[in-house]
Predict the structure.
Amino acid sequence: MKTNFWMSIANIWAEYGPSFLRGAGMTMLIAVISTAIGCLIGFGVGIVQTIPADRREQPVRWWIMRVVRFVLGAYVEIFRGTPMMVQAMFIFYGMAMLWNIHLAMLPAALLIVSINTGAYMAETVRGGILSIDCGQTEGAKAIGMTHVQTMLYVILPQALRNIMPQIGNNLIINIKDTCVLSVIGTVELFYTAKGVAGAEYAYFQAFTITMAIYFVLTFVCSRILRLLENRMDGSDSYDLATTDTLAHTSGMYSFDEKRHRSRLDPNADIREGGR
């Protein structure tokens, strides 16, 4: 029985291996591009949600930001609170019915997954920005930097490292969740597996191969992302930079406890035996 099972898997792979690989390639293409676009959407929404506005000093700006935040908040809550499969059906068929826009499968898939990812990343970015100490923002404002400059050059580089695990997590989720796009006819890995299983009447064997491919894709991506995180952390050992005069001076300074005590108590040397 076991021999027949593995032989069946080998036969299916020998015949449909290229189809599985094309499906896996489409899955990775959609997941990687959509995660990148979703991150850009998330960063945009997250930055807008953290723009300061004082109601007393800037009432017009405060009301505008209130409306914008309401719209962005509704977008985040709707796309986080509904399944991506339903979103795929709603966007794909809704655009065709309401605006007569008939998207091809790949653009539709990228749009759907990107918008979904952007909603999750918006909250991740907002949390990453708020995790940075407020003294960083105050220091940047003190030297005359605008809110945009503070975000681009001070806050976001630090927040990016903090949210890198969540970006990687979203990529892994997107690799797996692209299977829901089969409802709109996107020929990715799951869609290919369904076709092979139906043609060969071998559902268990076909989806065993599919599960193995999904595992390889997610495992490799997680290891690459872990290496990227370690690269962003830098070295564990740090050397004092002595090329700069100020850094050299501060680095060579040491507190003379004996001299300090002698100033406070002139008889300290006598009591310690002149040490």
Summary: The CA atoms of residues 56 and 238 lie 47 Å apart. The two ends are 87 Å apart (CA to CA). Confidence is low (pLDDT under 50) at residues 247-253.
